[in-house]
Design goal:
Elements lengths: L4 E6 L3 E4 L3 H12 L4 E4 L14 E2 L1 H8 L4 H5 L3 E3 L1 E4 L3 E4 L10 E3 L2 H14 L3 E3 L2 E8 L4 E7 L4 E6 L1 E4 L6 H6 L5 E15 L7 E6 L2 E7 L5 E7 L13 H12 L5 E16 L4 E2 L2 E3 L5 E2 L7 H20 L9 H25 L4 H16 L1 H12 L23 E2 L2 E2 H4 L5 E5 L12 E5 L7 E4 L5 E5 L5 H8 L4 H7 L8
Parallel strand pairs: 1-12, 2-3, 2-13, 3-9, 6-15, 13-20, 24-25
Antiparallel strand pairs: 4-8, 5-8, 6-7, 10-11, 11-12, 14-17, 14-18, 15-16, 16-17, 18-21, 19-20, 22-23, 24-26, 26-27
Helix pairs in contact: 1-4, 1-7, 7-8, 9-10
Length: 500
């Protein structure tokens, strides 16, 4: 390390590296649960208004709703209820079983603004302009070597470390973790532009011959337009982007350049499909793009990272607050690694089908597009994967059918489920008139608004931990009254495999 090295600083219980959406949601959740958190960020203070992420899907909006942020974020963007793929396939998502049956098109920085405000309000400490240069860990904690903007160095110490520092993660590299995969497509060009002839306000992806493109309305007069030209596939990311290049791609992919003009931002990048073998190495965990990266098709990158954070935050808080053993952290990898792998496959399939350029490939695309558009089970699966509402976590054999599944925003006697989840605790939903002796610091008890007789225990991330159709509150009350939350932790500490 160049520069003067400072003394070891026991700065926090948890250090999060990276202040993108994933790191901010995680840090805010931990701080809300009473955990001391420091965020280390390489960038100087201030949020860049340049962004690649643009879409917030239904499951992410549900997670933001559980934090009281969804409605405010919706005010910043454009609701899109239809996704158009390959010209022949149009998916209507307006009937999804969610409070948010749409894709919200809004720049990533709007998501970051809300999550930053929440994290700061909850007491998260931010250290900007600071680069991680080394990571070591032992049985008691993790030590970070860092270098500040002025060249001076420090050694920071925490019980746990989370790397949420993106595709080029220094935390992942410091651990020596492989990031296996491949570059799927090179020299993708992006721009935010105005259009003279505006198309239908949908998310559209299409490919013709040697070019594919996508177009998304922001709702503020600008459109995100991107594309790829097979004949320019080896152009380096560092090469400047000219608007004429994007016009030519759009003309071939969509039959029109829509009269694009007045670009406020342009960029060139390449797309990889990569995933680490394990999201946890001892006291160090990885989340978001530091753990997995994939093509931009379907707009699932930021969403998957935010859902990683929602899965990890309550588990890590429970461990550091002495409410669960370290083994609970193993379920983070067990649940989220297969989801990350599924996202790689689904987004990869979209991008490869968009790039189809021979008769056989275009024929396959036509068959799959027909199936996704006309066969209800296939349509539901496609929409569930893209929006995130279709993923569920596995459950022990013999469990109630609801166990491990996403719980929608059901109506309660006093409000909605996702309002009840804002306390960051498990929510036990019981039939009307059920008496439950419970620990109010760890559990919220609510009653169904209807006459439903199911007793349902919902995890802080909105998935069912346990359920029963039996009447009476004896077994549930006894376990909760004992203060051990046996039902919830026993269900949560399994090592399930997600299914979609």
């Amino acid at each position: 390390m160049n520069g003067k090295t400072g003394t070891t600083q026991h700065t926090a219980t948890v250090i999060v590296v990276g202040s993108g959406p994933t790191g901010l949601l995680l840090a805010g959740d931990l701080a809300a649960a009473g955990v001391s958190v420091t965020v280390v960020e390489k960038r100087p203070q201030g949020i860049s208004n340049l962004t690649r992420a643009f879409g917030v899907h239904a499951r992410t909006l549900e997670q933001l709703d559980a934090r009281g942020l969804a409605d405010e974020l919706i005010d910043t963007g454009q609701k899109i209820t239809r996704v158009r793929l390959f010209a022949a396939l149009s998916l209507d998502i307006s009937h999804m079983p969610s409070r948010f049956p749409f894709v919200l098109i809004t720049p990533q920085y709007e998501v970051e603004k809300l999550l930053l405000q929440r994290a700061e309000k909850n007491g998260v400490r931010f250290v900007y302009g600071t680069e991680v240069t080394g990571v070591t860990q032992d049985d008691e904690g993790v030590t970070l070597k860092v270098r500040h903007e002025d060249g001076t160095g420090d050694t920071l110490r925490a019980a746990y470390l989370v790397g949420a520092d993106g595709v080029r993660s220094t935390v992942r590299k410091a651990l020596g973790l492989p990031f296996p995969g491949q570059s799927v497509i090179k020299s993708i060009v992006l721009a935010d532009v105005k259009l003279t002839q505006e198309p239908e306000r949908t998310v559209a992806v299409n490919g013709v011959g040697n070019a594919f493109g996508f177009i998304i309305p922001f709702g503020d007069g600008y459109w995100r337009v991107g594309g790829w030209d097979r004949t320019r596939a080896e152009v380096a990311d560092s090469e400047p982007v000219e608007l004429e290049e994007l016009r030519e791609i759009a003309e071939r992919a969509f039959g029109s350049d829509f009269g694009m003009h007045d670009a406020r931002w342009m960029s060139r990048f390449h797309s990889d499909e990569r995933q680490v073998p394990d999201y946890r190495v001892g006291r160090v965990l990885l989340a978001g793009d530091a753990a997995h990266t994939h093509s931009p098709a379907g707009g699932q990158g930021m969403n998957t990272g935010l859902q990683d954070a929602a899965n990890l935050s309550w588990k890590l808080a429970a461990v550091v607050n002495g409410q669960a053993e370290q083994g609970l952290l193993d379920t983070y990898n067990a649940e989220r690694h297969p989801v990350g792998r599924a996202v790689l496959r689904s987004s990869g399939a979209i991008i490869r089908l968009s790039m189809a350029h021979n008769v056989a490939q275009r024929g396959l695309r036509a068959v799959l597009a027909f199936a996704a558009g006309h066969l209800r089970p296939v349509t539901r699966k496609a929409i569930g994967q893209i929006t995130g509402i279709g993923y569920a976590y596995g459950a022990p054999r013999g469990s109630h059918p609801l166990t491990g599944k996403r719980v929608p925003d059901v109506e309660l006697e006093d409000g909605r489920l996702y309002e009840a989840l804002r306390a960051g605790k498990f929510v036990l939903i019981t039939p009307r008139g059920t008496s439950v002796d419970h620990d109010e610091d760890r559990l919220t008890v609510a009653e169904w608004a209807s006459d439903r007789r199911t007793t349902l225990l919902v995890r802080p991330d909105g998935y069912a931990a346990w359920a029963s159709e039996s009447s009476g509150d004896g077994p549930v009350s006894a376990r909760i009254a004992a203060g051990r939350m046996q039902v919830s932790w026993r269900a949560a500490m399994r090592s399930p495999i997600p299914r979609s």
